[in-house]
Specification:
The structure is a single chain. It contains 11 helices and 15 strands. The chain has 2 domains: 239 residues, Rossmann fold (3-Layer(aba) Sandwich), CATH 3.40.50; 128 residues, Aspartate Aminotransferase, domain 1. The N terminus is likely disordered. The chain has an 8-stranded mixed beta sheet with strand order 1-12-9-8-2-5-7-6, with helices on both faces. Strands 13-15-14 form a 3-stranded antiparallel beta sheet, with no helix packed on it. Strands 3-4 form a two-stranded antiparallel sheet. By secondary structure, the protein is α/β, with parallel strands linked by helices.
Length: 417
């Protein structure tokens, strides 16, 4: 019987080994072991994962090993395979103490597996919790991993996970002239897709590199394979829709410790490209932000060194700004399914030295401003300088947002909002 290759094989919920859980609980794909384990049987598996790849409280790698899956190599993203490194911290290769599996860092000397790394691999697996914000670098790591898989003719399985910000789409759409590792594709800041849906989109829209696109095109039309029944496969979550408000059971990275930070992240991460503290080194990163020169009647805080932020911006400097931390439902009500840039507009207006508000690159080129890499263009910076209101700025996003939404709909696996 011929094995059919398609852009992506989607396995619907069949049987699982999780009958003790409530029937309508949202379940990441990793829980559905009876669906995907037969496809890994007898294969040498390479896995790209971090601490969020769990079944219950057990790391996926530990679970798969106990179930007899032969994992020959693991790959780790930003923050590392166990999720403990600082943001931007480069990590060397090592052997995982808990499993004895060699771990190759893809956030150090290189960002994708080499042909040598994949020599002892039959199937590649991906399982990382995303937060649905463009500049969260796991989707960039996913793209590099996909390209390596396709270029080296290795079947790729993605275990999907719910998107905690998957219930809306908003923000400036990236201009590819500003492409970087914090934004590689023409998508808005909040793009409303699971990581599996996003993978389908960048493959289906041919947004991968030329070699990966060519190999993917071949497998889409091929009728058989010597190695596997799939080339690119997404295992779906159970009971998830884009109306779901999924609360993460594990913090996805050191500086997104709670749902307040995760919900505000799409609105406040822009401060990383400014002179202001974005809250690293406080109890609530991305929910607290400010600067020593802002008015002293604002919220006072001092960033300090701590795990996950050993050298935060404005370390040990008394700063003034905003504390918008709140419980999840409270934040959701304030955001109302859209990005809030009021704080960014207000911060610029109150900042006394306007020419020092944006961190200036040595080159002075617009494409080198980190703020512009986060925004995905130079427009937002110019709009702030020009004194545009938040409403005027957000209105300017709409044409590009509408074009993106039409593309997005082609790749949705779950009921939309």
């Amino acid at each position: 019987m011929k094995k059919i290759f398609t852009i992506c094989l989607i396995l619907a919920l069949e049987s699982t080994n999780i009958g003790q859980l409530a029937a309508q609980s949202i379940l990441p794909a990793a829980y559905r072991t009876q669906t995907y384990l037969p496809l890994l049987k007898g294969k040498r598996v390479g896995i790209f994962a971090n601490h969020t790849a769990t079944i219950g409280k057990t790391h996926l790698v530990d679970s798969l090993q106990k179930l007899g899956v032969n994992i020959t190599i693991a790959f780790g993203p930003e923050h590392g395979f166990r999720g403990t490194a600082d943001a931007g911290e480069k990590i060397d290769n090592y052997t995982d103490a808990a499993t004895g599996i060699p771990v190759i860092s893809l956030y150090g000397k290189k960002r994708r597996p080499s042909a040598e790394d994949l020599a002892n691999v039959d199937v590649l697996l991906f399982d990382i919790q995303d937060v649905g914000v463009r500049y969260y670098t796991f989707i960039s790591s996913l793209q590099e991993y996909m390209e390596a898989a396709f270029e080296n003719k290795k079947p790729l399985m993605i275990l999907d996970r719910p998107n905690p910000n998957g219930f809306y789409v908003d923000g400036p759409v990236l201009d590819t002239a500003y492409k970087s590792f914090v934004g590689m594709q023409p998508i808005p800041v909040v793009y409303g897709m699971t990581i599996g849906e996003y993978a389908m989109m960048i493959a289906g829209e041919r947004w991968l590199n030329a070699k990966a696109n060519l190999q993917h095109d071949y497998y889409k039309t091929a009728s058989n394979s010597k190695d596997t029944s799939f080339h690119f496969l997404v295992i779906k979550c159970a009971n998830y829709t884009h109306e779901s408000k999924y609360v993460l059971p594990i913090k996805p990275s050191p500086n997104l410790p709670d749902m307040s930070s995760i919900y505000w992240y799409g609105s406040t991460c822009y401060f990383e490209g400014t002179a202001l503290s974005e809250g690293r080194g406080t109890d609530h990163p991305f929910s607290i932000f400010g600067h020593p020169t802002l008015p002293k009647n604002l919220y006072a805080f001092t960033p300090t060194s701590r795990d996950g932020a050993k050298e935060p911006k404005l370390k040990n400097q008394l700063s003034y700004g905003w504390n918008i931390y709140g419980e999840g439902r409270e934040v959701l009500k304030k955001l109302n399914n859209q990005i809030n840039i009021d704080f960014l507009v207000n911060a610029y207006q109150l900042f006394p030295q306007k020419d020092s508000f944006f961190l200036r690159p040595k080159s002075g080129k617009p494409t080198d401003y980190f703020f512009n890499k986060l925004a995905g263009n130079n427009d937002l910076r110019e709009q702030l300088i020009a004194g545009k209101t938040a409403e005027e700025i957000k209105l300017s996003w709409q044409p590009a947002l509408n074009r993106f939404k039409a593309i997005r709909k082609k790749y949705l696996l779950y009921k939309d909002f």
